[in-house]
Amino acid sequence: MTFQKSASLPGGGVNRPRILFVEDNDISRELIRRIFRRMEELTVDVAKDGMEALALHQQYFYQLIFMDLQMPSMNGIEVTREIRRREKADGLNHTPVIAVTAYVGEEDRQRCLEAGMNDFLTKPVDTEALVKKIISHTRNLPEDETSEPVERHHE
């Protein structure tokens, strides 16, 4: 699918949604960057692993997170559990986390949901499916939500 600027994507200007995409594969990360470059309505950060994702999550408020499941050292389920722990500790709103995977069986799906993930996106990432997930999970954002840097303190 060729991406055309879509009036249905939320944001633009100062209140555009900030999205985090976590992917450990270099080629997949470059593909994601190319897809998102055409979506000017969004601010997107791409993390190469779970540790970088947690560092970025501590620095910014994200309205949506796409999380690769299979990553070395800290997988997507572990990262999501830590994000949920931090949200609870800091009294923050629940950020939707979408699992990104080539295949997810029923047992994996259940583990993702138990960890606090909200949805699933199949690899290879299809632009149309990606846009639908973004719209679905960001359309009801409060007007005053910001994607500006924040200061958080964690143990």
UniProtKB/TrEMBL annotation:
InterPro entries: CheY-like_superfamily, Sig_transdc_resp-reg_receiver. SMART domains: REC (SM00448). This is Stage 0 sporulation protein A homolog. PANTHER family: HYBRID SIGNAL TRANSDUCTION HISTIDINE KINASE J. Keywords: Phosphoprotein, Two-component regulatory system. Pfam families: Response_reg. SUPFAM superfamilies: CheY-like (SSF52172). May play the central regulatory role in sporulation. It may be an element of the effector pathway responsible for the activation of sporulation genes in response to nutritional stress. Spo0A may act in concert with spo0H (a sigma factor) to control the expression of some genes that are critical to the sporulation process. The keyword Nucleus does not apply. Residues 18-138 form the Response regulatory domain. The modification 4-aspartylphosphate is found at D68. It comes from Anoxynatronum buryatiense. One of its GO terms (biological process) is phosphorelay signal transduction system.
